[in-house]
Amino acid sequence: MVASNPLFKGWTIKKFNATVINDVWPEVSFFTLVAAMVALVTKLTSHSLAVPSSLLTVLGTVLGLVISFRTSTAYERYQDGRKMWTNITIASRNVAQIIWIHVPFERVDKDKKKMTVVQSVIEKKTMVNLVQAFSVAVKHFLRAEPGVYYEDLYPLICFLPRYANTVGPPTPADMLPLWHASEDDEFPLHTATHPTASRSLSESDINDESVSSLEKGGSTVHRGQMEPTPSRIRRAKTFDPEAALADVQSHRPLQPARNPPETGFFDFFPVFRIFAWMFSTCSRRMRSKAGPKKPKGPLAESNVPLEITIYLSAYLAHLLRNNWLAPALATGLMNNIASLQDTMSNLDRIGSTPLPFAYQAHLRMSLWLYLFFLPFQVVESFGYLTIPGTAFASFLLLGFLEIGQEIENPFNYDLNDLDLDAFCLGVQRELHEITAHTTPDPTQFIFSAWNQPLAPGDRRSAEELTANVDDYRHSDHADSEPGMMSIRRVLLKNWRDVDRITRQ
């Protein structure tokens, strides 16, 4: 598929903001004014500002190579970030499939205590929800949004234990790192109450569209559509993916799942940021003269994605202790959990390792000097064309430099960054698709009237083939008519027919 030209598709304010024009126009304007001054002075006065252009070709070539290297390095980081998110998606699928399919529904632990089908479904679906929470936690972790109190994360992990000591009243000293890092003096966790119990499911809540059943060993699990609680307002005409999550109570307001910085005046006019810097500097000095600043306490940090993988690993150990998972599958589950941890570390490496400041500063200053002296070197040959020529060269070189700086960290909210929210929603959809399967016995769907396994050589259904199994039992030397051939001859005929039909 050939991608369409983005310049000829519908332009919007959002698409315009995705360009680097807002970032480079002050510098382009400055160098264009310098070019205009040089051209006007040289052409309208007796003074010539032209200088020899001996170094123009050499310096321009070297500077272009350096800018190209800068952009290529930034795009490589962009691509690595996308590959790492693909690894998260693959590992999440594998973990969810192993948990949902290979962990048995009917289980008996070492104490001969039998687990019902309902308990098994709740347990396995809860762990799959933790897999979904991992990608959401990584998204907030990369965007430097600490804590767990977000609309798309808290409903997935709110049931995890909060205190190490479960005996006696909860105290801040027993608070686990996952929750201690999100502690707020305004909304202390130790004052939180347990959520109220959900109302029981009645017959009026059950209809043809909201009922799903899971039959296993004579047991049936019904799941009905619960009415939304007042804590969440459903908006039918807006995109609200958090509406698919659980409705749980929180002792403090939850932050939005997406909280991009607001676009301000200085984003469109960055040249005036010098005044904001001067104002903030003066304000800090005035506050320092007024009195000493109140010291801040140590900031406790917790790696939320790591905490989630710890619970997944503990669940794996729980399965092994009760002999509920084969060793080979346990190895696969452990490897995929390790892949999630490894991918998280690589994403953190990409997001927290910018290019050295000295390299970026020296490259930008070298480009500024080159563009500043460019009109002096070309004014003798170009004349008044020096003005648009310098503007074009400034826009070209500064644009590539700014693109490299913008995509260097592809995990923020910029329009050119990776769409982490879409990646997380994709993982959510796939995990729900996995848990939608009831893992039936293959004999329930293989030998059906819908299946024609030997087509195109033999277009009878599997139900008909099994009913007339004698057709193939003694037919090694039979005629080549459909239905009377051997299995080997049918498969060879399939190969010849498919090879002939599919070749153009």
UniProtKB/TrEMBL annotation:
<keyword id="KW-1133">Transmembrane helix</keyword>
<dbReference type="GO" id="GO:0005254">
    <property type="term" value="F:chloride channel activity"/>
</dbReference>
<protein>
    <submittedName>
        <fullName>Bestrophin, RFP-TM, chloride channel-domain-containing protein</fullName>
    </submittedName>
</protein>
<keyword id="KW-0812">Transmembrane</keyword>
<keyword id="KW-0406">Ion transport</keyword>
<keyword id="KW-0813">Transport</keyword>
<feature type="transmembrane region" description="Helical">
    <location>
        <begin position="24"/>
        <end position="42"/>
    </location>
</feature>
<dbReference type="InterPro" id="IPR044669">
    <property type="entry name" value="YneE/VCCN1/2-like"/>
</dbReference>
<dbReference type="GO" id="GO:0005886">
    <property type="term" value="C:plasma membrane"/>
</dbReference>
<feature type="transmembrane region" description="Helical">
    <location>
        <begin position="49"/>
        <end position="69"/>
    </location>
</feature>
<keyword id="KW-1003">Cell membrane</keyword>
<dbReference type="Pfam" id="PF25539">
    <property type="entry name" value="Bestrophin_2"/>
</dbReference>
<feature type="region of interest" description="Disordered">
    <location>
        <begin position="189"/>
        <end position="232"/>
    </location>
</feature>
<feature type="compositionally biased region" description="Polar residues">
    <location>
        <begin position="193"/>
        <end position="213"/>
    </location>
</feature>
<keyword id="KW-0472">Membrane</keyword>
